[in-house]
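Figure 6 in text form: structure in, sequence out.
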């Protein structure tokens, strides 16, 4: 039982940075910020804005982004403190190991796999929609059998329906391309990402500036057609309206749905081991990317709901379709191109982060280090786990619908944020003298607010997401007690000391 809650000493974490089996330090503050922006702006702004406005919040989606952004700021400050203290791969997994013990670390590590791998599949799904929208401009249409997942969830009917397709081919192709880039090296990945980020920021600014001339204030009325509520507790709405299938509607429900749009700033912390000056650069990368993207999200959601009535927003390619509706088909070309570049960078950063979490878990012996901890001799990347991640993402993106993937990612990410905020409180108590190049202000207020806001958003998700989370964690427990506990490096060290 003691081994289950054994904590990894800070000295042991810091010693890992000096080993030969570590990653290459090549990332500066601008590159890290670019990775953060690259991870955040993509499917959230180009795809989920449509779902959030059409299905959940209406024009009040603007406030939904504010609520989600505030929750993320609390969590981001906590991530920044930990990343400056322990600049190694692993992100929230590593922080939990140092503060809560091995079992909690495994739970959050397994949860991060849910976040990054499933998020990557969601992003690949969104990329496919915009790529097909881009091809349609030139009159090119792929066979229906290879355009979408074989089934989807019909909210009006309340059950799954067959789409008539076999799998999503474009999603598979982009996943293979990104996997190849990631195996090549972090420097090449960062350069590719910076190019994609530059293109999509230009397009986002184009949407805001040009779209402002086509905003009709009447489209913002009513501003909150589903109300400002949407808070539920395990599927039972406690504040706000409900849909025909019993799911919560309103501004808070919209915030929970589009929370996926903010996933990415935390991925900056997974690259702490590759930062040149992690104590300074990682906090800068986390906070700057989050602030920039929050402002852009609020602006784009205001423009989108002002250009097109919320109930007529296209779900698959909402932003480019909005410009086609107001008579600017030429803009559809630019936006679709920008969306493809933007979503590509998100996919790259999400798939870049996943193998680094697996690397941290493998170093601790909880999963086979010979595979997941293998670093390529030339490229200095975790190449085996990168390829496995690519296979996993391609299969999910090809076969699962967008709605299921997005909501599954949200609950996993929110759980990670809750644990990181709690870990800051614990570390302040257990290691008050530890060096903290960046310190969360107003402790314990900020971490407590982070915990409460993230839990509120978790409860605002449909109840089936909780069941999916419980099933995922149950699978994780089987792996931990079947393999991880017996091969734990920390447990073996403790046993050796006792002898």
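Output sequence:
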């Amino acid at each position: 039982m003691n081994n289950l809650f054994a904590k990894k000493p800070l000295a042991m974490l810091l010693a890992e940075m000096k080993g030969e089996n570590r990653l290459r330090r090549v990332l500066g503050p601008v590159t890290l910020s670019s990775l953060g922006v690259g991870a955040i702006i993509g499917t959230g702004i180009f795809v989920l804005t449509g779902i959030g406005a059409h299905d959940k919040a209406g024009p009040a989606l603007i406030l939904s982004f504010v609520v989600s952004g505030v929750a993320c700021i609390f969590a981001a400050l906590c991530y920044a403190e930990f990343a400056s203290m322990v600049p190694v791969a692993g992100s929230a997994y590593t922080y939990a190991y140092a503060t809560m013990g091995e079992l909690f670390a495994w739970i959050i590590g397994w949860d991060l796999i849910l976040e990054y791998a499933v998020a990557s599949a969601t992003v690949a799904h969104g990329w496919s929609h915009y790529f097909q929208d881009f091809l349609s401009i030139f009159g090119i249409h792929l066979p229906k059998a290879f355009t979408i997942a074989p089934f989807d969830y019909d909210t009006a009917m309340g059950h799954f329906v067959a789409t008539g397709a076999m799998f999503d081919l474009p999603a598979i192709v982009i996943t293979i391309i990104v996997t190849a880039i990631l195996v090549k090296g972090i420097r090449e990945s960062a350069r590719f990402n910076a190019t994609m980020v530059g293109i999509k920021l230009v397009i986002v600014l184009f949407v805001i500036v040009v779209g402002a001339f086509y905003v009709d204030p009447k489209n913002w009325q009513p501003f909150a057609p589903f109300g400002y509520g949407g808070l539920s507790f395990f599927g039972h709405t406690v504040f706000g309206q409900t849909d025909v299938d019993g799911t919560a509607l309103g501004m808070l429900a919209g915030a929970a749905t589009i929370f996926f749009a903010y996933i990415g700033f935390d991925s900056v912390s997974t690259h702490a081991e590759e930062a040149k000056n992690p104590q300074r650069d990682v906090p800068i990368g986390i906070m700057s990317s989050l602030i920039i993207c929050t402002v852009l999200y609020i602006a784009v959601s205001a423009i989108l709901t002002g250009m097109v009535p919320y109930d007529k927003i296209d779900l698959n390619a909402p932003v480019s379709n909005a410009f086609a509706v107001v008579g600017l088909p030429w803009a559809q070309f630019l936006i679709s191109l920008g969306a493809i570049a933007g979503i590509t960078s998100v996919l790259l950063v999400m798939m870049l982060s996943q193998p680094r979490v697996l690397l941290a878990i493998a170093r601790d012996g909880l999963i086979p280090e010979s595979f997941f901890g293998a670093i390529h001799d030339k490229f200095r990347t975790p190449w085996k786990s990168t390829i496995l991640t690519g296979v996993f993402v391609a299969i999910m993106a090809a076969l699962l619908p967008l709605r299921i993937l997005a909501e599954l990612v949200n609950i996993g990410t929110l759980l990670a944020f809750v644990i990181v905020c709690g870990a800051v409180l614990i570390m302040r108590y257990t290691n008050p003298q530890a060096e903290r190049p960046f310190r969360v202000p107003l402790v314990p207020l900020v971490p407590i607010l982070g915990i409460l806001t993230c839990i509120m958003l978790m409860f605002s998700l449909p109840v089936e997401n909780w069941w999916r989370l419980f099933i995922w964690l149950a699978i994780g427990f089987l792996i931990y007690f079947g393999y991880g506990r017996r091969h734990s490096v920390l447990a073996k060290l403790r046993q050796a000391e006792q002898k």
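Caption detail: The first strand starts at residue 151 and ends at 154.
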